[in-house]
Structure formats: C-alpha cells, structure tokens
Amino acid sequence: RMGAPAAPNHVVASPSAVAARGCTVMVVDDDPLVRRVAARLLGKHGCRVLEAGDADEALRIHAEQDGDVQ
Fold first, then answer.
1. How far apart are CA 29 and CA 38, in angstroms?
2. DSSP label of 39
3. What pTM, to 2 d.p., does this model score?
4. What is the number of alpha carbons within 13 Å of residue 42 lying toward its C-beta?
5. Where are the alpha helices (DSSP H) in the chain?
6. Is 22 exposed, middle or buried (0-12, 13-18, 19+ CB in 10 A)?
7. Using one digit for the tens of pLDDT, what is the confidence trace for 3-48?
8. Which of 70, 21, 20 shows the shortest CA–CA distance to 49?
9. What is the Cα–Cα distance from 24 to 50, expressed in whole angstroms?
10. How far apart are CA 6 and CA 15, in angstroms?
C-alpha cells in the first residue's frame, strides 16, 4: 500500500501571496524562456521581478538592490 508523498522540505509562496506583501522577487535560471515565463507570471500577480541568468549575475543584481529581494 502506498502512502501520501512526503511533504517538501521548503516552502514556496503563491505568487498572489508574494504580491500581497509587495515583495521583489528574483528569477534565476540559465534558460531565457524559463526566466521569461516565470517573470511574466509573477509580474501579472503584481510582483516586481528581477531576472538573472546565473548565480554571479544574481549576486551582482542583489548587491545593487536595497535588500528587499525575497
């Protein structure tokens, strides 16, 4: 008999919950299409979205922000 799948060990907020808090989010992915789709979805929910293609770019962008990136 199979049981329910284990719960993930991390919490992911829904886009509407993030937008309700007025957060800035950063989408980091090396695939431009994935970044664009995720950014568009989050933007439609009212989020300010920053995009980065890799970790180095993400760290640079984060350093330029006022600490409000979630």
1. 10
2. H
3. 0.65
4. 22
5. 15-20, 32-44, 55-64
6. exposed
7. 445 544 545 556 566 555 677 899 999 999 999 999 999 999 888 9
8. 70
9. 7
10. 23
